[in-house]
Design brief:
Main location: cytoplasm
Strand order of the largest sheet: 10-11-9-12-13-14
Structural class: alpha/beta
InterPro entries: G_OBG, GTP-bd, GTP-bd_Obg/CgtA, GTP-bd_prot_GTP1/OBG_C_sf, GTP1-OBG_CS, GTP1_OBG_dom, GTP1_OBG_dom_sf, OBG_GTPase
Family: Belongs to the TRAFAC class OBG-HflX-like GTPase superfamily. OBG GTPase family.
Strand content: 15-25%
Order of helices and strands: EEHEEEEEHEEHEEHEHEHEHEEHHHEEHH
Low-confidence stretches: 220-228, 442-448
Number of strands: 18
CATH topology of the largest domain: Rossmann fold
Number of helices: 12
Subcellular location: Cytoplasm
CATH architecture of the largest domain: 3-Layer(aba) Sandwich
Radius of gyration: 39 Å
CATH superfamily of the largest domain: P-loop containing nucleotide triphosphate hydrolases
Helix content: 25-40%
EC number: 3.6.5.-
């Protein structure tokens, strides 16, 4: 059974907005006292919260599907629907949030940071809000929009000041247990740690965190063993401590060879852009297990050569705690030096300038796509896509209201400029979207139409004839009457009938 998870795919679905209500207030002696439909509530958001008390992504590995609450429906008597409660997901500090394409959205490195990964849908407006002086009793309301949904990748990178690196069974877990209150698994047989362990060390005035990174082997940067899976936990560390086993009985291994292998793997690991390469960070060497006589002799033998390479070397024993005090103080000094340099950089960091959105920015884009039966005009934009989602297409008045909103932001004119004509195929939204045949006649003035509630006269098939059409129809009737009189006169002259017989 998994006990530590540092990478997980989260399937999120934010709450849907509630629909608006269509209602007319009825009182005694006032059967139609005006619209009183309430608005629908907004759907709940899904929020990630960087919580210092959380150390693993295990809960999301077991339950990867998360959904927030839907918004309530609007009701009559101006009663608005309740807003859906947001869903807060606590994650460890140091979690990197990526989208399904692998693009980094945010790096939660500060405790208490909140990030909305899925926004809830908008609640629909009721007919009381849609009423105006010219549309006094709307027979429609807006629908609630669906919330955002998709896959989010969470990747944990441990935030520690010092990382312990070395071969398996070099004594890293024993060291972190000896200098902190952490209790990692320790045994008297060789094995490797399966997940990083964190510990807090207090050395005089210095207080810092250390991480026990699972053992590295040759080829770890290429995917061998568990090293590649956990090398990313070293990315955020300010300093590295090489823990070297001086009492190993494995053939072909010695402290210098082990250090060369670890350095090679650290150099081959690519760090994110803007970060210091691993081998360029401050490093110390701890020759462990000097409580064994043979190990002490080996440590004294290799120490001069390690110091010639520029390393500061400490001979320690996690069993007898020999040399641990000086090691913890040296690590504390490195961490404090790093913190001072970071604070200086933060003081010199440039100011963040908030640039407002331009006023004349178009709220939509029109793409001309080729099709089997001619060009297809696709409309992309936050507003038109949301308006389509809010429209009840079974209600003619709601469709007319959508036509008015589309015309007011200039989509009609933009379609004309793009080459669209009456009957052209127009799609609103990405993918399949909403497809319809464009009719430029369905434009504005829906408020001025005196049609029954829930209908729109612009959808009627009865077309008012023009003056020329009425004149042609009048002439046709006169000609028909003249032909009928002439036919009767010719029949009378032929003796087919007489006026006396008619009487």
């Amino acid at each position: 059974m998994a006990t530590f998870v540092d990478r997980v795919t989260l399937h999120v679905s934010a709450g849907k907005g509630g629909n608006g209500c269509v209602s007319v207030r009825r009182e005694k002696f006032k059967p139609l006292a005006g619209p009183d439909g309430g608005n629908g509530g907004n759907g709940g958001d899904i929020v990630l919260l960087a919580d210092p008390q959380v150390t693993t992504l295990l809960p999301y590995h077991r339950s990867p599907h998360r959904t927030s609450e839907n918004g309530g429906f609007g009701m009559g008597d101006h009663r608005h629907g309740s807003a859906g409660e947001e869903l807060v997901l606590p994650v460890p500090v140091g979690t990197v949030v990526k989208d399904e394409n692998g693009e980094t959205l945010i790096d939660l490195t500060e405790p208490g940071t909140r990030f909305v990964i899925a926004e809830g849908g908008y609640g629909g407006l009721g007919n009381s809000v849609l009423a105006s002086t010219k549309r006094k009793a709307p027979g429609f309301a807006l629908l609630g929009t669906p919330g955002q949904s998709g896959d989010i990748n969470l990747e944990l990178k441990t935030i520690a000041d010092v990382a312990f690196v070395g071969f398996p069974s070099a004594g890293k877990s024993s060291l972190i247990a000896a200098i902190s209150a952490a209790k990692p698994k320790i045994a008297d047989y060789p094995f490797t740690t399966l997940h990083p362990n964190l510990g807090v060390v207090q050395a005089g005035q210095h207080r810092y965190t250390v991480a026990d990174v699972p053992g590295l082997i040759e080829g770890a940067s290429e995917g061998k063993g568990l090293g590649l899976e956990f090398l990313r936990h070293v990315e955020r560390c300010a300093a590295l401590l090489h823990v070297i086993d001086c009492a190993t009985l494995e053939p072909g291994r010695d402290p210098l060879t082990d250090l060369d292998v670890i350095e090679q793997e650290l150099a081959a690991y690519p760090v994110p852009e803007g970060q210091i390469p691993l081998l360029e960070r401050p490093q110390l060497v701890a020759l462990n297990k000097v409580d064994v006589p043979e190990a002490r002799e080996l440590a004294e033998f290799v120490r001069p050569e390690l110091e010639e390479r520029g390393y500061r070397v400490f001979e320690i024993s996690t069993a007898s705690h020999e040399g641990l005090r000086s090691l913890t103080f040296a690590l504390g000094a490195l961490v404090q030096e790093h913190r001072d340099s970071v604070s200086d950089l933060e003081d010199q960091s440039p100011r963040i300038v908030m640039t407002p959105k331009p006023v004349n920015r178009k709220p939509f884009d029109i793409l001309v796509e080729g099709g089997t039966y001619g060009n297809v005009y696709r409309i992309l934009g936050t507003k038109p896509e949301r308006w389509v989602q809010q429209t009840d297409f079974t209600n003619d008045e709601a469709v007319g209201y959508l036509a008015d909103r589309i015309a007011k932001i200039g989509i009609e004119d933009a379609l004309f400029k793009a080459g669209a004509v009456a009957g052209s195929t127009v799609v609103i939204g990405p993918g399949k979207g909403v497809v319809f045949d464009w009719e430029p006649t369905l434009t504005s003035t829906a408020e001025l139409l005196a049609s029954p509630r829930g209908t729109d006269a612009r959808f009627d098939q009865n077309v008012r004839p023009t003056r020329e059409q009425r004149r042609d129809a009048y002439y046709d009737r006169m000609d028909a009457k003249s032909e009928a009189r002439e036919q009767l006169e010719s029949e009378r002259e032929a003796g087919l009938w007489s006026e006396d017989e008619q009487d």
